[in-house]
Structures are given as structure tokens and as C-alpha cells.
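Retry 2 of 3 after timeout on previous attempt. Resubmitting C-alpha cells to design endpoint.
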């Protein structure tokens, strides 16, 4: 997709999501109190966690069902969150550079096969324990795939001033951006 889920254009941050939750939150909705989302590291406000255990997606490497896929919920049709393999393809099959679009820093990822195709990913930061951190320094995009090191974690694409990486150790209760893909 040309922009993050919930964004009106490529340089808007869009909404922040916990992995497997289709409820997205604007920056103004992050915090504590009525109507706010904390994105608690202890999973206390995580949809698929109760009584000290995960209630859904309990196997490493599991992939989200479409009803729990934020990109599909917001965009419909064949849109979905990228899999781990699709994140790796994006990382490996593009060149990338830091640019600023409309005052927003991010990375432009351009296809190595067709230089007329590119996407801009803004450095929207992440949310943890009511704090939106790393804005303008890092950008994160959830995959639809749980990590391989434990069910607490899911794979994500990270961008920063030094490059583009794919990691499987971000706690699924963190608030990250979502970018839809087809295919």
C-alpha cells in the first residue's frame, strides 16, 4: 500500500496496533484513562492474553487469521499484513535511503527490478506503556507472523537512519504501524 493503515498520505504516521488486534489508535488516543490505550508491556491490555497466558496464537511462527489482520480489517478485499517472507523480500529486493517528505523523515524503498516502483515508510516510532517513542528516528511495520523465539514476539520490519532490518523480537503488545500488501 502507498501508506500506513489509518494514514491519509505516505508521510502521515497512521494508526498504532498491537499484533493481532484490529483496533488502531491515533497518537492522541495513547495513554492512561478513559478511552486511552496503554500498549502495556505486561500484556494487561492485550486482546489475546488472560490469566497469565496467551489465548490465541500460541505456536511460534503462527500467522494471523484474516479476522485478526489489521490491514485486512481496514482495507478489505485481498489486503493483508505482510508475512515474514514478504518483509524479507521487501528488505532484500529494494534499495533504500533516508528522505524527508513534507517534513517527515522516513525511508524510501525502491525496487531493484523496477526503479519506478517505490514506497515511503515514515519513522513513526512505536508505543509502549503509554509512551510513543522513537518518532523521527525509527519506523516499524508489523508482519502477520509470530516470531521464532517465543510466542511473546512477532516479526517486524524496522527502519532507522542506518538501514532496513527484519526482527522477530518485539513484544506483541507494543504499538507499531501496519502496512497492507496484496499477494
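Retry 2 succeeded. Sequence:
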Amino acid at each position: 500500500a502507498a501508506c500506513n493503515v489509518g494514514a491519509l498520505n505516505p508521510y502521515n504516521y497512521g494508526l498504532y496496533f498491537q499484533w493481532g488486534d484490529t483496533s488502531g489508535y491515533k497518537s492522541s488516543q495513547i495513554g492512561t484513562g478513559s478511552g486511552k490505550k496503554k500498549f502495556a508491556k505486561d500484556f494487561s491490555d492485550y486482546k489475546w492474553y488472560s490469566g497469565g497466558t496467551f489465548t490465541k496464537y500460541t505456536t511460534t511462527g503462527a500467522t494471523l487469521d484474516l479476522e485478526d489482520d489489521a490491514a485486512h480489517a481496514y482495507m478489505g478485499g485481498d489486503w493483508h499484513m505482510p508475512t515474514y517472507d514478504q518483509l524479507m523480500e521487501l528488505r532484500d529486493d529494494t534499495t533504500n535511503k533516508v528522505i524527508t517528505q513534507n517534513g517527515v523523515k522516513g525511508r524510501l524503498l525502491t525496487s531493484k527490478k523496477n526503479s519506478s516502483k517505490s514506497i515511503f515508510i515514515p519513522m513513526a516510532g512505536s508505543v509502549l506503556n503509554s509512551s510513543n517513542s522513537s518518532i523521527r528516528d525509527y519506523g516499524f511495520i508489523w508482519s502477520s507472523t509470530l516470531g521464532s523465539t517465543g510466542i511473546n514476539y512477532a516479526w517486524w520490519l524496522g527502519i532507522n537512519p542506518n538501514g532496513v532490518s527484519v526482527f522477530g523480537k518485539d513484544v506483541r503488545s507494543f504499538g507499531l504501524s501496519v502496512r497492507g500488501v496484496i499477494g
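Attempt log closed. The two ends are 12 Å apart (CA to CA).
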